[in-house]
Design brief:
Blueprint: E1 7-11, H1 16-27, E2 31-36, H2 39-45, E3 52-56, E4 71-74, H3 91-105, E5 110-116, H4 126-140, E6 144-148, E7 151-152, H5 158-169, E8 172-175, E9 185-186, H6 187-195, E10 207-208, H7 217-229, E11 234-237, H8 240-251, H9 255-268, E12 278-279, H10 285-290
Length: about 290
Amino acid sequence: MKKKKNNIAITGANSYIGTNLINYFISRKIYVRAFCRDTKTLFESFPDNKYLEIRHYSFDDKLIDFSKINKVIHLAHERTNLSRKDFSVDSNIAACKNIINSALKYKIKNFVYISSLLAHANTKSQYGKSKFNCEKFFLNNNFCILRLGFVFGGIEKGLYKKLMTSFRSNSFFPIIFPNKIVSPIHVIDLLEILIGDEISKKTKSPIMIKMGKDIDLKTLFYHLAQKLCGKKISFLYFPSSFLYFFTYFLGYYFKIFNLLFERVAGLASLESREQEVKECNFILKNTEKFFDNK
């Protein structure tokens, strides 16, 4: 890989956002060094592409090779799959320290950490707490932090793929916290922001990306099912508060319920947000168009 203006490194490259990033960048002949644990799957998705270099990545790696890289987009994040009583150490903390040290060693100035709207002081989910704790290390090094809501569109993968598959297969869909504001963003809008120069390289607070109007969970699901799956779904309303406390209690002892609790707690945490964020007026034309009822 020769050093050019746009040589981009992506961690967590096998994720939903990572896969869309790679597809977007290499289609524009931008060189990508993709780091992930499952390199075989990524090779199968993008075979023999001269603009893509795939490397194995582990959270234990002390030094990540960012030689000849101009920008790093850090997506990699490991969710807990344990009961809360068995959870003790957040591997993401050590991993973010390692990647920061690597970025500093290779003098990377353009660094973007992809965080979440769940990352705030009052969050109820372990995922949100982990993201919030990791943010502090990146802020201390003047790296850019993007807090994202629900990302949709593009190549389907992971949780987004499961959601879309469910919409295509069912006319009824269970829902909790239907009125929570989810701040959706179309994946193409996100990719254009990441490749552009609008993101500040140095900021004293996370950057929150959102539309000019609020979109709640029910509206998001309705539009996804109707416009992308051709289905008009009806909702089955589940008791939100009951499910929160039920999974909270059992999640302390059993990992399966803690996995459910993390999803429930994530939605519950959308009602309370950290105020010290920088709201930027990005152009979200694909997102705005998707939710335009005209």
